[in-house]
Description:
Cofactor: FAD
Bound molecules: flavin-adenine dinucleotide
EC number: 1.1.99.29
Enzyme class: oxidoreductase
Subcellular location: Secreted
Catalytic activity: a pyranoside + acceptor = a pyranosid-3,4-diulose + reduced acceptor; pyranose + acceptor = pyranos-2-ulose + reduced acceptor; pyranose + acceptor = pyranos-2,3-diulose + reduced acceptor; pyranose + acceptor = pyranos-3-ulose + reduced acceptor
Amino acid sequence: MPILSLQEVVQKSFDYIVIGGGTAGLALAGRLSEEPTVSVLVLEAGQANLDDPKIVMPAQFGQTFGNPQYDWAFNTVKQKHTNNKIHLWSRGKALGGTSTMNFYCWSKPTKTDIDAIERLGNPGWNWTEFIKYSRKSESFHLPAQEQLDVYPHTYNPNFRGLSGPIHTSLAPQFHTIDKLMQETLVNKGIKPVEDPYGGDISGGWIASANIDPKGWKRSYSASGYLQPNLHRPNLNVLTDALVARIVFEDKLTPAADRTASAVEFLFGDGSAIHTVKANREVIVSAGTINSPKVLELSGIGQSQILSSFGLETLVDLPGVGENVQEHVWSPVSFELDDTRGVLHQTLDLLKNPDTAAKHLALYAEGKGLFRSCISSFSFLPIQSCDLPDTPSLIALAEKEAEAAKAQGSAGMGEQVDIWLEILKNKKEPDFEIVALPCVKIALAPAEPSKHYFTLLALLNHPLSRGTIHIQSKDPRVHPEIDPRYFERQIDLEIILQEIKYIRSWKETEPWKSGIVREMDPGPKYQTDDELREYIRNSLNTTWHTVGSCSMLPREKQGVVDPQLKVYGTSNVRVVDISIIPLHIAAHTQTSAYAIGEKAANIIKATFSGKN
Length: 611
Ligand SMILES: Cc1cc2nc3c(=O)[nH]c(=O)nc-3n(C[C@H](O)[C@H](O)[C@H](O)COP(=O)(O)OP(=O)(O)OC[C@H]3O[C@@H](n4cnc5c(N)ncnc54)[C@H](O)[C@@H]3O)c2cc1C
């Protein structure tokens, strides 16, 4: 069935109600509805926005930020360690969720990071399983000869999915800056990775993008899992439906668990509460920020927090909204030398309206800058970078690990042990360098005729832990987000070393002759203390937040078990990246798809024979 009206949903019943038609939610709904005898309803707070050029046309990074038609536009509370800055946390509000606005980077975690999830007490959540489901979500398209002529892209078809709903390809533009960065890395002794989708990502590599080369459009959860399946009579979607809470039966199960019977939601701008009934399960896929909010408004969470808003605690689950972890980065930007015969085609060119119009026309012919993406990456173990400060950094890490264990929750000890193990390991990445093909985010002013690019100095495994909790009973009010950036100094120190490492490239070719000047941090920032201040002032979110509904044993502050079932309930699961208990060295969309795919199999297996 296509997208439904309110009347077709209210007081009706569906076997599965999925709260949130986002990245993982639509992957799950698409797979569950493969079984024709079950009915699936997706309740999505945003609009459909299907085929909207702002969403599907690449190279428009950040175009939908702050626009309520597309973006939740959350704000953090003031961050003490970033000079009291409030950080905007954009998240997609539409069918497709955050896959409507992400930056197309197709990146998979390390085997070690995924196996760590199993080590934390989650049998079946390991690399073998991850890669099985991740490949199921992906259709990789081989690069064209014209692309291979510019850059020798290598790949291993064994690591790629070839028939899944999400199309991935190699973006055709920007190979000049990719080449500059990757060749410099090789000359610095960093190994090129043949294909970064097999669990070993340490080194330099060119990423694929979730762009369908047929039409050069965004491939995302709505285009992959929903639109091709809208003919199914059992796949139902209601947009503009903001879920307020899950309703539970009064009677407990013999195991003393709560059973969800319905979901309450608001529709459009209205304030009336509507109800839809669940026959089998309610699945919360509202993303890392809103999934804990939905649970808390439903009476599941820390009883102290719930009672402070007059909410009855149905399941006392202290882990809800805790263990929040986020990747962060600081920009290091450069002016490129255009005088040596290399014509750099960066996104700065699109600031000129005439050039933008020309490239828009080219896009219609399948050419030009609007097929561009972010392609050049390096994930590096800090110990592989020959930095003189590494021994003192490890000493600080050991000290901070002890403090984090002492002050953290019951489950923090094991997380910290794995974190320290990875930091000390000479092969596992601790930080990431991403080449952004423009100067958009840098602080220094850009000149119109020049070409720039920015390296993001990004932290992969933060030690700081934040929180996300309701701040009102009203479902329309955003939760309070406190990532507690740099509460652990080691997080800032790792970024500091990363910036110093990038600066060390200046005597290495082709960097040496390809760069005119460093714009940010720039010559003003030289000493470690000056650079620390620069990092505090320039810090950005990577929008990869995880952990707010961590999959961990209940006594370790877990929210869901390895079947993704919320503790203390018989039929509520969480299926999105909020379940990741320890952050991974990867951008998070591939994990959201893999979680949605695996959850579908778990749920299908639970009910097999009962359809
Ligand atoms: C700007 C940006 C750039 C990014 N770039 C990349 C990238 O290049 N590569 C990469 O791998 N990752 C990237 N990410 C991260 C990645 O896209 C996300 O981690 C992933 O899409 C999250 O998937 P999810 O299913 O957990 O949540 P979402 O996709 O956010 O899904 C949650 C859904 O629930 C809906 N919802 C929320 N609350 C309610 C409610 N109460 N009632 C009904 N519906 C509700 C939301 O509207 C949304 O549709 C980026 C993220 C952002 C924000």
